[in-house]
Amino acid sequence: MNYPTGIKKSHNVIINYSHRGMTLEDDINQTNKYYRDNDIAYIYKKPTPIKVTKVDFRKDRTSTIKEAFYEEPSTTDYNGIYKGFYIDFEAKETKNKTSFPLANIHKHQLKHLENIIRHGGIGFIVVRFSMLNETYLLKAEDLFSFTKSSQRKSIPRSYFKDKGKMLKESFRPRLDYLKVIDNFLEVKNNDKEKDK
User: 43-65 as b/e, with b when 16 or more CB fall inside 10 Å?
Assistant: First the structure.
């Protein structure tokens, strides 16, 4: 700003561009690639099950799908294996600052996560409050505990803070969610030892 006396004043504004253009899915995909590249875990994004009904084949040997439909509802976003355990989880973002709408998770996805837990796998959701740049991992067991005991149509952010674990962003891996899983596995193994 120029003042009449010729003195120039400026105001430094710090703008955080660290997360510009990145989505939760991008962050998880980068993290999973890091895990695979470093032989830590093998976790992949599940493809959406579609049935192609019409394709446009061209002379240059390329083709374009013209018509397709979803064969069945998809389950969750990611699955794989880590330390001999099957991992399965859903990733969601919300612009809401105070809660996560349960309408963002479908009933068949909840049922799928229940089946994973019942069969000894590790299931969870990763939720990003994008306006706050906060990402939480919530175990499926805590998700079910909330949905069975509350009539609310959304999970308060405070529940994520209390029962979930915040995932800190870093360079590599971007969101080290397996660090949280290691804590769960440690508790699980300690519980098994107590039962003996």
Answer: beeeeeeeeeeeeeeeeeeeeee
